[in-house]
Amino acid sequence: MNGIHDMGGMHGLGTIVRDPAEPLFSADWERRTFGLFFAVFAGGYMNVDEFRHAIERMDPVHYLEGSYYEHWVHSIETMLVEKNVLSRDEIERRIAQLRENNACQS
Q1: Pick from 25, 26, 72: nearest CA to 48
Q2: Which of 22, 70, 92, 94 is the most buried (most CB within 10 A)?
Q3: Is the pTM of this model over 0.85?
Q4: Per residue in 39-76, pLDDT tens?
Q5: What gap in Å lies between CA 71 and CA 55, rounded to an integer?
């Protein structure tokens, strides 16, 4: 299988250059996403194969525009909706709340 998410394994794209001084998380939401992954996994809502498959099903443009942890958020949301733990409406309402709270704090 050769999808857009497999670009790292394609020939001719060069090596991945990583700065050893780069922090593990560039923002607090990434740290929380990392923890959320383990909570969802430990809660039995997904396994590693399901997690990866949800990322592989991302729209290619969304995949290319999104960051590493945005892929994780997409996968976690997808799995929780597909397993009927949360609805898409619940997620959208919470996102709107968070945006409103951030706008009020600015």
Answers
A1: 72
A2: 70
A3: no
A4: 999 999 999 999 999 999 999 999 999 999 999 999 99
A5: 6
Q: How far apart are CA 46 and CA 92, in angstroms?
A: 21
**CA end-to-end span of the chain:** 45
| Token output for 77 | 């949301």
The single-letter code of the amino acid at 49 is D
Q: Is 80 exposed, middle or buried, given 0-12, 13-18 or 19+ CB atoms closer than 10 A?
A: buried
What length is written for the chain?
A: 106
Delineate the domains of the chain, giving CATH numbers in brackets.
Answer: 4-105 (1.10.472.20)
- HSE, side-chain direction, 13 A CA sphere, residue 32: 4
**H helical segments located in 1-106:** 28-42, 48-56, 60-65, 68-82, 88-105
